[in-house]
Specification:
The complex is a heterodimer of chains A (194) and B (181). In chain A, helix 1 packs across helix 2 and helix 7 crosses helix 8. In chain A, 67% of the residues lie in helices and 0% in strands. Chain A has eight helices and no strands. Chain B has two domains: 75 residues, no CATH class; 53 residues. Classes of the chains: A mainly alpha (194), B mainly alpha (181). At the A-B interface, helix 1, helix 2, helix 3, helix 4 and helix 5 of A face helix 1, helix 2, helix 3, helix 4 and helix 9 of B.
Chain lengths: 194, 181
C-alpha cells in the first residue's frame, strides 16, 4: 500500500503560523502568479493588480493564526483575494463582472489585462515552452514529473507505478525540474518576470 | 553544481512536494533567507508546474523578489531565536490544572471522615493552588504568535478571519483548480 500525496502546504503553513517568515515567503512565491491571475480578471490596471496582490498576502499573513486548515490554504487565500478585489471594485467604478463561474485559476479564462493579443500570445508561448521542455526530458524523468505535477501522486505512489525506489523518484523529479527551469528561465527573463 | 547545492536543491524539490524530511526542511530553511538563487528556483519550479497544468502561463506583474521585499517592509520584524514552546508543556499544564481542580473540589466537600481530611490536606499546598489557577484558556493563549501580535498592535488594518467572511462567489473546485495535493 502506498502513501497518498500529503498536503504540500501543510508544513509551510504550520511553520508560518509558528512565526517562520521563510515559510511564508515560500507560500507567497508559490501563489503569487495564481493570485495575480485571479485579480487580473476583475482589475484592469496592472499596477492595481500588483497592489492588490500585496494587500492579499498582507491580509493572509495577519489572518494566518485564525486559519484552521478546514479548507486548503489555497482556497482560503483565494477568498482573501476575492475580498480584496471586491473592496477595490467598491472604491472604483466596476469595469467588469467578478463572476468566476469556473472558480479556478488554471483554466480557460484569460487575465483581463493580459487580454491583448500580444500578451495572450506570450502567455501561451510560455506554457508551450514549459511543455516543450518537458517533452525533451528523458522518459523516466518526464513520467515522474508529470505523475507528480499533473496527477498529484505521492513519491510512494509514483515509485509503485514506475517500479523503482521512492528515492529514485525524488531524484528524477528534482532533475526534471532543474532541466525544465533551465529552459524556462530565458523565456521568463525575456519578459516573464515583469 | 556542487554536491552541497545538489543536496539543497533536492531538498527544495521535496519541500515543494510536501515530502521533505525534517533534515531537508532544516537545510532549506537555513539557506532560504540568504540564497536568492534558491528563491528564484522555487518560483521558477512553481511557474513550470503551473504551466504544465494550464494552457497559459501569464507573466507576473512584478518580479517575485520585489513582492517579497515590499511585503517585508510592511510586516513586523521576524522574531529571531524566539524559543518555541515545547509541545509537551501545554498538555502537561492542562493535566496539572485538572488535577489541582480535582483536589480543590475534594477540599470543598464536607469532611466525611478524619482519614479523608488527612489524605487531602497535604496536597492542598500553595503550589497546587497556584496550578489550579491556570486555566486552559491561559495555557492556550501562550500559543499566540508574538510577531503577529505585534502586527495587530502596530495599528495596521486587521483582516477578519477569512473563514467567516460572507462572500457570494463560488470557491475553486479542488479538482479543477488542482490545489497542491
Amino acid at each position: 500500500m502506498t502513501t497518498p500525496a500529503p498536503d504540500s502546504d501543510a508544513l509551510l503553513v504550520r511553520e508560518a503560523q509558528a512565526g517562520n517568515r521563510n515559510a511564508f515567503d515560500m507560500l507567497v512565491l508559490k501563489y503569487q502568479r495564481r493570485v495575480e491571475r485571479l485579480l487580473s480578471r476583475s482589475v484592469r490596471d496592472a499596477a492595481d493588480v500588483a497592489d492588490l496582490c500585496q494587500e492579499t498576502f498582507l491580509a493572509a499573513y495577519r489572518a494566518l493564526p485564525a486559519f484552521r486548515g478546514d479548507s486548503a490554504f489555497y482556497t482560503w487565500l483565494y477568498r482573501i483575494a476575492i475580498n480584496a478585489a471586491q473592496r477595490h471594485r467598491a472604491r472604483h467604478r466596476p469595469v467588469e463582472s467578478l463572476d468566476d463561474d469556473e472558480g479556478t485559476f488554471g483554466t480557460a479564462a484569460a487575465p483581463t489585462d493580459d487580454a491583448t493579443p500580444e500578451a495572450l500570445l506570450a502567455s501561451r508561448q510560455l506554457a508551450v515552452g514549459v511543455n516543450e521542455a518537458v517533452e525533451a526530458l528523458a522518459e523516466d524523468q518526464r513520467r515522474a514529473l508529470l505523475l507528480r505535477e499533473v496527477d498529484g501522486l505521492s513519491y510512494d505512489e509514483i515509485a509503485d507505478l514506475m517500479d523503482c525506489p521512492p528515492g529514485t523518484v525524488r531524484s528524477r523529479i528534482f532533475r526534471a525540474r532543474e532541466a525544465v527551469a533551465a529552459r524556462l528561465r530565458p523565456l521568463l527573463d525575456g519578459g516573464g518576470w515583469r | 553544481m556542487s554536491a552541497d547545492d545538489a543536496a539543497l536543491n533536492r531538498a527544495l524539490s521535496a519541500v515543494m512536494d510536501g515530502q521533505a524530511t525534517p533534515a531537508e526542511w532544516a537545510l532549506v530553511n537555513a539557506a532560504w533567507a540568504n540564497d536568492p538563487g534558491l528563491r528564484e528556483r522555487w518560483a521558477l519550479w512553481h511557474a513550470a508546474g503551473d504551466g504544465l497544468r494550464s494552457a497559459e502561463l501569464p507573466a507576473v506583474h512584478r518580479e517575485p523578489q520585489a513582492l517579497l521585499e515590499a511585503l517585508h517592509a510592511q510586516l513586523p520584524a521576524p522574531v529571531v531565536g524566539h524559543p518555541r514552546r515545547r509541545d509537551w508543556l501545554a498538555p502537561l499544564a492542562v493535566a496539572a490544572s485538572f488535577i489541582a481542580v480535582a483536589i480543590g473540589v475534594g477540599a470543598l466537600r464536607p469532611p466525611q471522615a478524619p482519614e479523608a481530611m488527612v489524605a487531602v490536606a497535604p496536597l492542598a499546598t500553595p503550589r497546587a493552588q497556584g496550578l489550579s489557577g491556570m486555566s486552559f484558556a491561559q495555557t492556550a493563549a501562550g500559543r499566540t504568535l508574538p510577531a503577529l501580535g505585534t502586527a495587530r498592535e502596530s495599528g495596521l488594518p486587521v483582516e477578519p478571519p477569512p473563514e467567516i467572511i460572507d462572500w457570494s462567489l463560488t470557491p475553486p473546485e479542488p479538482a479543477a483548480s488542482r490545489p497542491p495535493p
